[in-house]
Amino acid sequence: MEQNLQNTMALLARTPAALDALLRDLPETWTLRNEGAGTWSVLDVVGHLIHGERTDWIPRARVILEFGETRAFEPFDRWGQERESEGKSLGQLLDEFARLRAAGLSDLRAMNLQPKDLERRGRHPALGIVTLSQLLATWAAHDLTHLHQISRVMAHQYEAVVGPWHAYLGVLKCGGHSAP
Amino acid sequence: MEQNLQNTMALLARTPAALDALLRDLPETWTLRNEGAGTWSVLDVVGHLIHGERTDWIPRARVILEFGETRAFEPFDRWGQERESEGKSLGQLLDEFARLRAAGLSDLRAMNLQPKDLERRGRHPALGIVTLSQLLATWAAHDLTHLHQISRVMAHQYEAVVGPWHAYLGVLKCGGHSAP
Fold it and tell me: What is the torsional sign of CA A31, A32, A33, A35?
């Protein structure tokens, strides 16, 4: 099953501006706090998105096109954002994410992928055989999973102050659905 | 427990631009589809946010300031977006939401609320006694619960095409946490 690549790219192109409009210069109550020990702040999430642009999506697409199933992808470092974020402000990270995303989309357009290319197969180190179509669809869905996380981390900061309305705010009941 | 009103207003001011950057002119795959019968599309959610601006937040703040606990708020119509959205494009709804939110924030600033005002009490038709502070904090958290919903509704459209990566995408495991 394939996605419509134009729809995927339309979303990928909008995420940096959406995060910028939501987060830039927002008080640190919203952006530097997390959900407790071992969890991520909004700043950590943006660092993670940057790390994905550098090491995950386009690099893995190139591995599929060059090596197919014969070479597994490098495992993705889920804590790689610690290096990406170190000593940087959220504004700097938003700038960097926008720059890297634009470059990634430019690289993707330059690949000039045809429908048969989207069926090409690669090897994920844990998930096994995947297709280029699945990789690119996941790039977009990964933006959404982290927008989902960002809204939850931010709402958590207001969990106490909403009082009885807590009962009506679904985001406060979200357990995070962490990957196993 | 009170919130910092400046932090609340900073978030409220950013939501329209964030939704605009994410959603305007996005393919309808993302914005007009829902999660199944009886659920909302992204367009429905923006209509709901508009309905809240018109009938919920500032009108209820005025009821608290004028009548205190002696008059319960009008119940909020959770399906009021059907009237708000009828015959309108998503672009028109985004424009309307931005206009109403700016007006609401202007009204809020004109109230010139002091810390003692935030402690003033009103009566919710179902939840009982609430404070003005809780109402205004909920206005911001309500934006976040619907950003959380929007990201989930959009991700749902790619549930099949991500293939094995489904296991790693928390947003696809979100049950929606609907209010009882």
Answer: positive
Single-letter amino acid, residue B132:
L
Region B134-143: mean pLDDT is 98
Longest dimension (CA), chain B: 56
Kindly determine whether residue B168 and residue A162, on different chains, have CB atoms separated by under 8 Å: no
A2 interaction partners in chain B (CB closer than 8 Å): 161
The pLDDT tens digits for B88-116 are 999 999 999 999 999 999 999 999 999 99
Q: Are A165 and B27 inside 8 Å of each other by CB?
A: no
Enter the tokens of residue A51: 């790390």
Q: What is the ipTM of this complex?
A: 0.96
Rounded to a whole number, what is the largest CA-CA distance in chain A? 56
Burial class (CB in 10 A: 0-12, 13-18, 19+), B81: buried
Tell me how far apart the terminal alpha carbons of chain A are, to the nearest angstrom: 25
Query: How crowded is residue B21: how many other Cβ atoms within 10 Å of its Cβ?
Result: 18
Nearest to B35 by CA among B143, B179, B172, B169: B172
A176 with B170: Cβ contact below 8 A = yes
Which residues in chain B have their CB less than 8 angstroms from residue A149's CB? 170
What does pLDDT average to in each consecutive run of 10 residues of chain A (180 residues)? 89 98 97 95 96 96 97 86 88 98 98 96 97 98 98 97 96 78
pTM score: 0.96
Q: Answer for the pair A21, B14: CB distance below 8 angstroms, yes or no.
A: yes
Long-range pairs of A168-171 with CB within 8 A, sequence gap ≥ 24: A168/B179, A169/B138, A169/B141, A169/B142, A169/B145, A169/B179, A170/B145, A170/B148, A170/B149, A170/B176, A170/B177, A170/B178, A170/B179, A171/B141, A171/B144, A171/B145, A171/B148, A171/B149, A171/B177
Structure tokens at A22: 């939501």
CB-based contact B154 A144, cutoff 8 Å:
yes
| Closest chain B residue to A29, measured at CA | B7
Closest CB to A21: pick one of B14, B144, B160.
Answer: B14
